[in-house]
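Hi there,

I know you've been waiting on this one. I reran it after we fixed the sequence typo, so this is the corrected version. Both the input and the resulting structure follow.
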Amino acid sequence: MTKEIVKTTGGHASPFERIRKVNKVGNEYWESRDLAEVLGYTQYRNFEAVIEKAKLSCFNSGHRIEDHFADVSKMVGIGSGATREINVTFLSRYACYLVIQNADPKKEIVAHGQTYFAIQTRRQELADERIDEERRVLLRGEIRRHNIQLADAAKDAGVIEPIDYAIFQNHGYMGLYGGLKQEDIHRRKGLKKSQKILDHMGSTELAANLFRATQAEEKMRRDKVKGKDAANLTHRKVGAKVRQTIRELGGTMPEELPVAESIKKIETERRKQLGKAKAPATQKGE
């Protein structure tokens, strides 16, 4: 495993970046014994107590401990070719943040570490938010496209009138959302009448609805479904099957997932940013 040193803007390497490591798949981590040394803990057993407090903080924050703390054993040299086994904990960036929050506040380096990991953790959160926005925009676009294909399959089955298609769509929602119709979901999520539920779904909920739409279309075409009642029943069964899968995997039911920021707002902001980026080139051309 290789170490990677990242320079700060002042031209110096942070002591916490010096001990940062990256595994073979590109994930960063810190070793507890390295961090203990940087923080001035001469007795590692004292630092182990700090780690245990950090694990409890992680659990109380609703995070899985094993996602951020990995207890392992490793062999180290002790001279003359001899080795011995020691215990070490691999820590994620978030785990380091929790460890330092529970470390001795009288140590000056702990205060520096609190600032460093607070800033870096927030930067990672912002990066994750941008990634999730990208995922949401992509999934929303896919749903728009597949809903057109689903409507075409429903039309072939005999769902012609707009009112019939609205009923057809509601059957899909009822299957996926445990009997809730679109207006029920809208009310449960606390959305205004002008807000579309699909525009306020997070990536997990969007993915579930995309799967419902794609599988309903394929099943209707594959089974050559005919008649409005048969189409409605097929859509509801597919939605229910997706819901069952979520339950079996231990996931959160879609009606329980939180409301997200409007995708339309995100798309509008991106168009503005794109316009600003293109503005200098346009002026130069003029």
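Quick highlight: The CA atoms of residues 215 and 228 lie 18 Å apart.

Best,
R. S.
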